[in-house]
Structure to design on (355 residues):
């Protein structure tokens, strides 16, 4: 973010078009490079959330699974805010650790 | 964007710096390198006759009058596309190689057969793009394809740069493009009306002692290719005065 972007944000103005261009490019290139179609990504996102939800309660509104790209490598980035750990998952863990 | 213009200007610049240079027009469908070099009336034989064994290489090569270090191997009839194979391009380059220090291959637009033919014979690559979203996206696709062919180095020439628009952050900045494409920058060519004038005449800007911004940029690309350490200009430094300083401050990255 540049100083101009910050000022634009504070004043509620549209950001500079170069900044928009860069963000749009980064997104579209992450998809181009990985060759993952949006449908597949959506399915992956759903399954990742299912698995994680077995253990913890997630804040589904704040979460996001997306592709990011830097230095020509693409990474799958999951940002999943946890509300709390599930009781049932904790019990399972305690059970398996009980070795005497 | 600007492949043929870069090839013509770079060819002339390298030749004038003492490098024996061959330029090969691999854009068989829409050939134009002859026109930009002003050699369109001197073509007798083309790559087609050379490949078919109907003439010797020396008969097809068109030497530039003012820059005798430069020779063009013209593209043949567009029907060449029907039978040309990547191996033919490799064969052609092998034929030319012993007589020159450097061969510039002008690739066609797109990533189809024509591009594959051109890439088959290349050892290194120069990507020319403008700082616009569609051009940068296409460049990224081409870089990806070249990477799989193990062509390296792949270097970038950023074309048609408008320093004022960059200062206003209304055009992708130089670092934006190099960050996204992640390849080293070989040159910056400013938007320059003289490019059109020079193509009208068939006299590349680098011919003679022209001092227009693009001419200087092309000559610097040639020098960097030869290994000279020429610093890259900063488009922000091209605008002076208080307004420019304020705009520069506004571009400061804070996080």
């Amino acid at each position: 973010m540049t100083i101009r972007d910050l000022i634009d944000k504070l004043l509620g103005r549209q950001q500079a078009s170069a900044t928009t261009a860069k963000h749009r490019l980064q997104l579209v290139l992450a998809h181009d490079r990985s060759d993952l179609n949006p449908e597949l990504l959506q399915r992956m996102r759903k399954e990742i959330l299912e698995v994680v939800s077995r253990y913890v309660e997630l804040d589904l509104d704040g979460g996001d699974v997306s592709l990011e790209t830097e230095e020509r490598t693409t990474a799958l980035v999951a940002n999943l805010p946890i509300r709390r750990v599930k009781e049932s998952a904790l019990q399972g863990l305690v059970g398996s650790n009980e070795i005497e | 964007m600007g492949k043929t213009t870069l090839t013509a200007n770079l060819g002339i610049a390298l030749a004038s710096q003492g490098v024996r240079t061959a330029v090969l027009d691999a854009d068989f469908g829409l050939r134009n390198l002859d026109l930009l070099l002003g050699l369109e009336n001197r073509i007798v034989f083309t790559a087609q006759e050379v490949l078919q064994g109907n003439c010797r290489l020396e008969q097809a090569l068109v030497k530039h009058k003012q820059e005798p270090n430069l020779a063009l191997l013209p593209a043949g009839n567009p029907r060449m596309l029907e039978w040309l194979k990547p191996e033919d391009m490799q064969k052609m380059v092998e034929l030319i190689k012993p007589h020159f220090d450097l061969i510039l291959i002008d690739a066609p637009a797109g990533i189809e057969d024509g591009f594959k033919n051109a890439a088959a014979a290349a050892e290194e690559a120069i990507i020319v793009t403008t700082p616009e979203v569609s051009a940068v996206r296409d460049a990224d696709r081409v870089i990806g394809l070249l990477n799989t062919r193990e062509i390296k180095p792949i270097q970038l020439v950023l074309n048609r740069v408008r320093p004022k628009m960059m200062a206003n952050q209304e055009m992708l900045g130089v670092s934006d493009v190099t960050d996204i494409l992640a390849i080293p920058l070989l040159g910056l060519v400013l938007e320059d009306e003289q490019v059109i004038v020079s193509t009208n005449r068939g006299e590349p800007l680098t011919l003679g002692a022209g001092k227009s911004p693009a001419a200087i940029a092309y000559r610097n690309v040639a020098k960097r290719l030869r290994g000279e350490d020429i610093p890259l200009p900063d488009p922000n430094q091209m605008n002076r005065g208080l307004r420019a300083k304020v705009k520069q401050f506004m571009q400061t990255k804070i996080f």
Observations:
- DSSP finds four helices and four strands in chain A.
- Strands of chain A lie at 56-58, 64-70, 73-79, 82-85.
- Chain A has one domain: 3-91.
- The interface with chain B takes residues 1-4, 6-7, 16-19, 21-22, 24-26, 28-29, 32-33, 71-72 of chain A (CB under 8 Å).
